[in-house]
Amino acid sequence: SQTIHQWPATLVQPVGSPLSLECTVEGTSNPNLYWYRQAAGRGLQLLFYSVGIGQISSEVPQNLSASRPQDRQFILSSKKLLLSDSGFYLCAWSVGQTRETQYFGPGTRLLVL
Amino acid sequence: GQQLNQSPQSMFIQEGEDVSMNCTSSSIFNTWLWYKQDPGEGPVLLIALYKAGELTSNGRLTAQFGITRKDSFLNISASIPSDVGIYFCAGQFNNNNDMRFGAGTRLTVKP
After folding, report:
1. How far is the alpha carbon of B109 from chain A, nearest alpha carbon, in Å?
2. Hey, is the C-beta of A48 within 8 angstroms of any chain B C-beta?
3. What pLDDT tens digit does each residue of chain B (111 aa) get?
4. Which residues in chain A have Cβ-Cβ distances shorter than 8 Å to B30?
5. Residue A60 to residues A52, B2, B18, B92: CA-CA distances in angstroms?
6. For residues B90 and B99, is the Cβ–Cβ distance under 8 A?
7. Residues of A in Cβ contact (< 8 Å) with B104
């Protein structure tokens, strides 16, 4: 069966510090991968998605970047965090790109102070 | 940004009661999905709907894909304390990068 992991689970970082969140998927090959941000009390906003190694599409302009160095690894990064980057970050995967449901990881709660 | 209107925003009900929530959109979707999120965890898929008019059940949960393809509802029958959480609807056009989420319905069940 497929599983998705995210770490760290919780992170507290000062403003201006760098960020690296990691997501890995097991049990499947060539998954589509997604990064979402969930602000407190709100729905999910798609940040990035990837259909393959090195292929990243950005949905919204922002202070963050994403990379996919390996087939089942997706990384969310920032060079300098802003207060507004605080939130709950969710990684998700799907088998295909068309009409395929997405399965979410446990999330990383980021607090920027 | 969000293109779905999900209601109600929150519900406080007594254990055993039935629950109904819905999502509407100005856009047509090809797929409707319902997720549940427990505190501090990622959303878990409950029901996926692929055809207009489709009515699908998953235990005590029932969801329907509206005929107009612009709305969907989720019903929970005979609620129990573990139903507590945030329920999200999601509409998908054709690709997963076109998926849009509602703001969520926060459900509280009193024993």
Report:
1. 18
2. no
3. 446 899 999 999 999 999 999 999 998 999 999 999 998 889 999 999 999 999 999 999 999 999 999 999 999 999 999 999 999 999 988 765 678 889 999 999 998
4. 99
5. 19, 13, 38, 18
6. yes
7. 41-43
